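Late entry, flavin-adenine dinucleotide complex.
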Amino acid sequence: MTQQLDRRNFLKLSGAALAAGSGGAATVAMGQASAAPAVQASRMADLPKAKGPRLVVVGGGTSGLTVAKYAKKENPDFDVVLVERRDMYSSCFSSNLWYAGLINLEFLANHSFLDAAVNNHYIYFNATVTGLDRDSKTLLTSQGDIRYDFLVLAPGISYDYEKIGVDDVGVQTDLRLRYPGGFVSPTEHITIHRKVREFEGGTFIQTVPSGNYRCLPAPYERACMIAAMIKKNKLKGKVIILDANPEITIKAEGFHSAFDELYKDIIEYVPQMAVKGVDPYKRKIETDFDTYDFDDAAIYPNVRASTLIEHLGLMAPSTKSNQKEANIDTRFYQYVDDPHVYVSGDSRPHPYSKSANTSNTEAHYVAKVLAARAAGKEISWQSPETICYSVVNADPMQAISVDAHYVYDPEKDVITGFSDDTKVYLDRDEAKGQGALEWAHGLYRDMFKA
Ligand SMILES: Cc1cc2nc3c(=O)[nH]c(=O)nc-3n(C[C@H](O)[C@H](O)[C@H](O)COP(=O)(O)OP(=O)(O)OC[C@H]3O[C@@H](n4cnc5c(N)ncnc54)[C@H](O)[C@@H]3O)c2cc1C
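Prediction complete; structure with ligand written out below:
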């Protein structure tokens, strides 16, 4: 049975196998010596026997860490296992501040998955998810299979380089290595930090993609932080922001004031300039209108849900999501035809801001949904809250911010936009600069402490 399970899932779930067309299982067999079976027999993960309904949460980012903690609080009977492929945490949010020396790396990374699990009575299981068999409620991981009663997937986003005209996998790979977007993994942040430190002048390009990309204000905030370093080091350099959108996508007035008043000769903002191709070797960016040469760059391509969502067969049809997000219902995050499987965080198809505060507050609610459903009950929909500070000045440290909820239309079963109580604070000041730090500390506390 186990072998059949693996074989079926390998065929169903492996992108590589699917891409190979006729030879998914055969490819595995060919790669193996002699008469070994086509598929490895599966084994169960080394985990203690579940003491209650087992909730498996995939992804130790903002969403997964919060779901794991609060589901256990909401229903102490849950036996919670958090499956995360990283063995070190470092946050994506707040990473821009590091580039301007406003925080150190410890601020982002000094948070332990082990401590989070011990403090909040769940198991942290360091493994990569590779497959799913919903019939037998089994998750396949690099460290063995795990049976679940409820499964929450919160694997975040992946980049979509094809949407910026880079189709060749070799070029995509070089672009990823040399000019990372800095919106998925901590190692990208280390590279961008090094780039900013080593920048000696010339042109640094920061691109902004179209679509519902991760953290709308973050590319503009990053441009400010790099410009602040250029200013501080008195370099002959500039930051060009090539924005695929017709206008700064959020807090526009606050960013424009910062660009004009703090970085007049340093930041050049170019709207409506979608990237249509990149040559990472000659350092050129093509758009419909022009070619831009650069000395260094952070190329932020379009985003899509983590490729894991597609590989597990949970992707929504293109009519529902053009970013390959999960096929879940609007109010309860449940995969459309499976009451045991949920998807939260930036892999969701909702028009919410793909940001940490949204993922965190949403996860508090998802934890309540799970606890209610384990008890055979339902709860009413609650909006997530998007609180987002953007630091625009490094000396003194000043920020702008937004605080928003969302509106649900029960007739159409859709999210229609921001609620009327949305507040945007566009005057930069030091109080909000401090607010940005306190907000991040609060989030770390909520995810890692008891
Ligand atoms: C530069 C930058 C600045 C930002 N600034 C802000 C900000 O100021 N305010 C704000 O609110 N938000 C900000 N954000 C956005 C915020 O960080 C994300 O929106 C939020 O963390 C999304 O949470 P998530 O849990 O959905 O995804 P993630 O935090 O990305 O977590 C996904 C997790 O899933 C794991 N995973 C993926 N695939 C697998 C697999 N197959 N097996 C096991 N584990 C897997 C990953 O390793 C990762 O740990 C910023 C992001 C960046 C990059």
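Residues 54-156+306-382 form a domain with the FAD/NAD(P)-binding domain fold (CATH 3.50.50.60). Will revisit in the morning.
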